[in-house]
Design brief:
Distance between the termini: 22 Å
CATH class of the largest domain: Alpha Beta
CATH architecture of the largest domain: 3-Layer(aba) Sandwich
Number of helices: 12
Largest sheet: 10 strands, mixed
CATH superfamily of the largest domain: Isopropylmalate Dehydrogenase
Number of strands: 14
Shape: globular
Bound molecules: nicotinamide-adenine-dinucleotide
Strand content: 15-25%
CATH topology of the largest domain: Isopropylmalate Dehydrogenase
Structural class: alpha/beta
Radius of gyration: 21 Å
Helix content: 40-55%
Order of helices and strands: EHEHHEHEHEEEHEHEHEHEEHHEEH
């Protein structure tokens, strides 16, 4: 049996509640021969309370050694006044930085049973399955100079700098093309080459990588503003979208809303393949935050967290069939009309976090029988 080491970082608020359901799913797979070994540690506000920092060096060492990190959520009003460098979010940012997670994968999948919750018409979103690949460690959020200067006379000037080097575009493009090969073989690259030099380079580099290494994949280019429009006009035209940090931030949120609730959205952040094993560093997390308004009530939707673990099965452990099984179990549970409060509609049955976990495990039993 291959032993795989998972580091669970449940974090704050509803993080531990939804992570509990992942632990049950891991136990289900272990009982059937999988070899996941779990470690658990603190991150975010709870880590600040324990050690005065949002993630300790010891936790970082465990994260660097793990085969995958499964992250819940951090933050909450309790830590609103802690110093900026040790605020809960700093824990997540350090993990992303030190693990060099440059590729953020956000699937937007619309379950048939939830098509009515989308802000778009059912026929536009039913069966939607797209993947947004966002560059996560470069671009305008990190480029220097990044300053506000006082020009005197009541005037100030703010500068952010959008910078991309060839290698950063190449490595994110490769992630997108590799993913497309396992999906519907199509990549749409979005940039603003009409007004930005980084867009010109982005376009050139993605085209060159395509020609050199992935000629079998269909590649389209779209201006990022037009891409936003197309995402709400006809989202099913896309398979994999690859874009920079800033545009990816916005476009992935637009895509998210096509699918209904934030409690349904998983994500993965991947690093470079390690020399020798070829295994990528990886962190999996729901898109939602710590939801302090509902924390401790046992009503949070665990689906985004469970679907994040399914992404870990798919992208870190090459367990695509098992990931499909989890996704099917989620769909079957929704088809049965079971809903947490955030996705409940008239005529459906409202259940809590643990009952949703149990319902999904029941479906795993049934689907694998
Ligand atoms: P949020 O995602 O925590 O909550 C937004 C709304 O969605 C709330 O009404 C919440 O109850 C609901 N919601 C979120 N997840 C849900 C779930 N699984 N089931 C049911 N309902 C759910 O965003 P926010 O309120 O803007 O932020 C709350 C805290 O979380 C803040 O401290 C913020 O900084 C932090 N945050 C952390 C992360 C992260 O850890 N990656 C991401 C976003 C926000």
């Amino acid at each position: 049996m291959v032993i795989s080491n998972l580091l669970l970082l449940p974090g704050d608020g509803i993080g531990p509640e939804v992570m509990n359901e992942v632990k049950r799913i891991v136990a289900w797979f272990n009982a059937r021969g999988a070899g996941f070994e779990l470690e658990e540690d603190l991150v975010g506000g709870c880590a600040y309370d324990a050690h005065g920092e949002a993630v300790s060096d010891a936790t970082m060492d465990r994260a660097l050694a793990a085969d995958a990190v499964i992250f819940g959520a951090v933050g909450g009003p309790k830590w609103d006044r802690v110093p900026y460098e040790v605020r809960p979010e700093a824990g997540l940012l350090r993990l992303r930085k030190d693990l060099e997670l440059f590729a953020n994968l956000r699937p937007a999948i619309c379950f048939t049973a939830l098509a009515e919750s989308s802000s778009l018409k059912r026929d536009l979103v039913e069966g939607l399955d797209i993947m947004i690949v966002r560059e996560l460690t470069g671009g305008v959020y990190f480029g220097q100079p990044k300053v506000i200067t006082d020009l005197g006379g009541g005037h100030k000037r703010a500068i952010d700098t959008q910078v991309y080097d060839t290698f950063e575009i190449e490595r994110i493009a490769r992630v997108a093309f590799e993913l497309a090969r396992k999906r519907n073989n199509k990549v749409t690259s979005m940039d603003k080459r009409n007004v930005m030099k980084t867009g010109v380079l982005w376009n050139e580099v993605v085209s060159a990588i395509h020609q050199r290494e992935y000629p079998d994949v269909t590649l389209d280019h779209m201006l990022a503003d037009a891409g936003g429009m197309q995402l709400v006009r006809a989202p099913k035209q896309f398979d994999v979208i690859v874009t920079d940090n800033l545009f990816g931030d916005m476009l992935s949120d637009i895509a998210a809303m096509l699918t209904g609730s934030i409690g349904m959205l998983p994500s993965a952040s991947l690093g470079l393949p390690a020399a020798g094993t070829g295994k990528r560093r990886a962190l999996y997390e729901p898109v939602h935050g710590s939801a302090p308004d509902i924390a401790g009530k046992g009503i949070a939707n665990p689906i985004a967290m469970i679907a994040s673990f399914a992404m870990a099965l798919r992208y870190s452990f090459d367990m695509g069939a098992e990931a499909d099984l989890v996704d099917e179990a989620i769909a079957a549970t929704l088809d049965e009309g079971l809903r947490t409060g955030d996705i409940a509609t008239p005529g459906t049955t409202k259940i809590g976090t643990a009952a949703m976990g149990t319902a999904i495990i029941d479906k795993l039993d049934r689907l694998s029988a």
